[in-house]
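Lab notebook, page 48
Experiment: co-folding of the full assembly
Goal: obtain a model of how the components sit together before planning crosslinking
Operator: M.T.
Materials (sequences as entered):
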Amino acid sequence: MSSEPRRQMHLNLFLMSVGHHEAAWRHPQSQPERHTDIRYYQELAQAAERAKFDSVFLADGLATWGRAAHSIVGGLEPFTFLAAVSAVTEKIGLIGTVSTTYNEPFHVARKFASLDHISGGRAGWNIVTSGGEMEAQNFNKEEHLHHHLRYQRAAEFLEVATSLWDSWDDDARLFDKASGAFADPEKVRAIEHKGEWFGVKGPLNVPRPPQGHPVLVQAGASDDGREFAARYAEAIFTAQQTLEDAQEFYRDVKTRAQKYGRDPDAIKILPGIGATIGATEAEAREKEEYLHSFINFDRGMGMLSFLLKQDISQIDLDGPVPPFPPIEEVNGMKSRTQLVDELARRENLTVRQLIKRLAGGRGHRTFAGTATQVADQLEEWFTKGAADGFNVMPPLLPGGLNEFAEGVIPELQRRGLFRTEYAGSTLREHYGLSRPRNRFEASSQSERGGENI
Ligand SMILES: Cc1cc2nc3c(=O)[nH]c(=O)nc-3n(C[C@H](O)[C@H](O)[C@H](O)COP(=O)(O)O)c2cc1C
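Observation: model returned without errors.
Model output:
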């Protein structure tokens, strides 16, 4: 075996009830009745930990989008979920999605600080600004806040949350029973934030998290989304269909990061991959087609109508895809709408073909092949400046995870591209990210805290 290269890829398991294929719940092997059973997710996270994944990730939305008739919608709330998963795992990182549009920073900073303490430094926050009106309507609003303003609010949200985590010095607590000093009052401070969106006095009512700050993850890819990611994100989940698009995104975000004085290597870019794995390529394609056979095309038309902003339920399934609205008019997920539009045009897809292409991963890249072919694909993107790792999105769970763990991961390990053992214990250590300095500390206390990273 050749000696291990210095750079290894990072793998995140994107947990999604019974799988990422929209019709996975109808597959004979899936267990949709377990989608609110925490033991099911604990088993998945334990399997991912045995395979040495960096992290598991739970997405979250604040509505059901009227889709309950034909899709698995709704599920467990991320903090409750990840705290329960942390109790049965030891190493794997735990990334949860929380919206900056429909939350207050004090609450969110507190919950992530708690999760980081509970898990011994394994928490990560997928920062989202939320995608639509239906979420707004659950929070006293008729309309979704404008895209640009959502990112402005998110930036201030992040300033407040990170300040709150820093409101305690790492060594603020003294536990001095003899003198009766629990904490040094000089080291627990108010943040006195008064901004456009938030007024927060502080300090936080949870001591500084073990990681300093939980790992900051982001998934937006519009111009505002990229700027936000370049400024704050330490890991980025992204949907990319082609090597060229992924390379452009990778280059662009890392270049933008330098403007903020950041080291481009301190941002890990993880495109999604929905791999259907078979003993042969033909078997993998057959498995993929079998899953497609459960697609409900009415539902698919509904999803496309949502993106197209027009009712296409009466349109010919085998006809061309109607034009998408101009991107300036999209107030929800801009970059995803653009990606789907480009996919349909580039490959000249009919409505039926587009629905099938989106079924496996909602716009993320899907691939059917042998474990070796999947490893080849990942290696290509990893070595050609398109990815620092991948967001693994099995079309069917738990089977797709097992196939990835038993086939693709050993192949990547043989090539020296993936760890065979965890080197550290925190999520920051897995991703090779340094522990953030405490902005309020005069001493080099927090740098000292970074020495084991
Ligand atoms: C892998 C991935 C996971 C995402 N998970 C969520 C999620 O759980 N909740 C959510 O509201 N948005 C989620 N998003 C959407 C993004 O936060 C963002 O709104 C979307 O990518 C569009 O970004 P843009 O508005 O900057 O174009 C996710 C996106 C990606 C690529």
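Interpretation: The mean pLDDT is 94.
Next step: discuss with group before ordering constructs.
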